[in-house]
Design brief:
about 280 residues, Rossmann fold, two-stranded antiparallel sheet, about 40% helix
């Protein structure tokens, strides 16, 4: 009978052969998900035998990961700061860059709590749910064009016990008469020509609808900026997550649309990732 250590060695070796980055960590995370335990528990139970049914189930997951399917889609879960989310291939897997965006909104909202926030391109609902958890008095709306994404977002809100309104909308299409104190968006921003060069996990499995930002990766920024002021309260705030090398272009678009640049937040590689804007009216 295979033990925990046996399975870890076999799975790690398979991942190494397939070219999976961090093979041991991937094996550990899959086994932890199977056994509903912590990584530390694996090390404390190396000699624990696994039942045949457990080995068979893990084997199917290992094969899927060996085909570069993201770990989060295999387990169906991911962690984002202090919340847990369900994810499928209908939504992007939340990135560390989005944590910077969430932190920026929360920190700036502590002094003067906004009454309303709109999260455009909400996907899994990650931003809307995080913000509602930390700004419980704020009315938060998440929107997306994808019905499948909205169902996942709604399920995630229930899972995290927060009340968020989710609306199907192509950007502002469903909000003709509504204004918000804050609008936030992590829109599709990958240049169309660069989709083929993305990591296999992203290129082959994550939804291109949530990745493709057009020829220059700027289509959604332009569309949002063109009419965002019509949906913002007086002196309302607009927050964007940025792709690499997009700060100058988006900042210039924002200036032309009548927004003041308040701040730019870099990631840990000093790449500008968050743009904070305020309506000049």
């Amino acid at each position: 009978m295979n033990t925990v250590l046996d399975i870890l060695k076999k799975s790690s070796g398979y991942f190494l052969q397939k070219g999976i980055e961090s093979p041991r960590l991937n094996a550990e995370r899959l086994l932890c998900h199977l056994l509903a335990c912590r990584r530390l528990d694996l090390y404390l139970n190396f000699d624990k035998p696994l039942h045949d049914a457990e080995v068979d189930k893990l084997r199917t997951w290992v094969v899927r990961r060996g085909r570069f399917e993201p770990l989060e889609y295999i387990t169906g879960t991911c962690e984002f700061m202090d919340i847990s989310l369900s994810v499928t291939s209908a939504v992007l897997i939340p990135r560390p860059e989005t944590e910077l965006l969430a932190e920026a909104i929360f920190k700036r909202s502590q002094a003067l709590t906004p009454s309303t926030i709109l999260d455009l391109c909400t996907g899994s609902g990650v931003l809307a749910i995080y913000l509602k958890k930390h700004l419980p008095e704020t009315e938060i709306t998440g929107s997306d064009i994808s019905e499948n994404a909205l169902q996942i977002a709604s399920d995630n809100a229930k899972q995290n016990q927060v009340d968020v309104r989710f609306v199907r909308s192509d950007l502002f299409e469903s909000f003709s008469n509504e204004r918000f104190d804050v609008i936030v968006s992590n829109p599709p921003y990958v240049r169309h020509s660069e989709l083929v060069d993305l990591q296999r996990e992203v290129r082959d499995y994550e939804p291109h609808l949530a990745l493709d930002g057009g020829v220059e990766g700027l289509d959604f920024y332009q569309r949002i900026l063109t009419i965002a002021k019509n949906h913002l309260s007086e002196k309302g705030m607009l927050y964007f997550e940025l792709g690499e090398g997009q700060k100058e272009n988006v900042a210039e678009m924002a200036k032309q649309a009548g927004f003041h640049l308040i701040d730019t937040i870099p990631d840990y590689a000093a790449i500008p990732r968050v743009l904070i804007l305020q309506s000049s009216e």
